[in-house]
Amino acid sequence: MSQQGAVVDVTQLPAADLQKLRGSLTEDVQTITQNFGNLKLAYSKYGQALEALTDITPENKDKRIMVPLTSSLYVPGSLSNIQSVLVDVGTGYYVEKDVEDARVFLKERMEMVQGNINKVAAALSGKRRDLDAVSAILQAKLQAQYSAQQAALKKVESLQ
Question: Residue 24: pLDDT above 70?
């Protein structure tokens, strides 16, 4: 259709090309929506981890707790180390940090993810706007084609 970065007047495209463009934009919106959801989930998990750090206090040392093994499986345990925690820094690597450093790390990660959420939300809004515009133009073109066909049909019928 066009070279990378070139501007195309979509009102001049034929209906078939508009349908392809609408399909492509729909896929983009779905992909960006999925990415947006993944970022929101990551933000939520960091928030939960930050909240869990509030329970690591001297008052809770050696206190009996339930340790999650999965989201629905827990085992009894006790909080013996209130000085440090293991922090997942990505791709399966864990780093031991003291509680305050872990808190700072999680807040920084949450800020980074929130920035990405804002960027993805803006991209999603733009893609949805583009999709709506292309859909409206396609609908108008299809309606115009239908009207032209109906007018031609009436003209043929009036000649008979």
Answer: yes
Q: Residue 110 maps to which CATH number?
A: 1.10.287.370
| 83/16 Cα distance (integer angstroms) | 64
Beta carbons of 75 and 69 less than 8 angstroms apart: yes
Distance separating alpha carbons of residues 63 and 44, to the nearest angstrom: 26
CA atoms within 13 A on the CB side of 141: 16
Whether 22 is covered by a domain: the verdict is yes
Tell me the average pLDDT of the chain. Answer: 92
> Any idea which residue has 């949450």 for tokens?
110
**DSSP designation for 92:** T
Residues 120 and 41: their CA atoms lie apart, in Å, by 14
The average pLDDT across 39-45 equals 96
Domain that holds residue 47: 13-155
Write down the pLDDT at residue 131.
Answer: 96
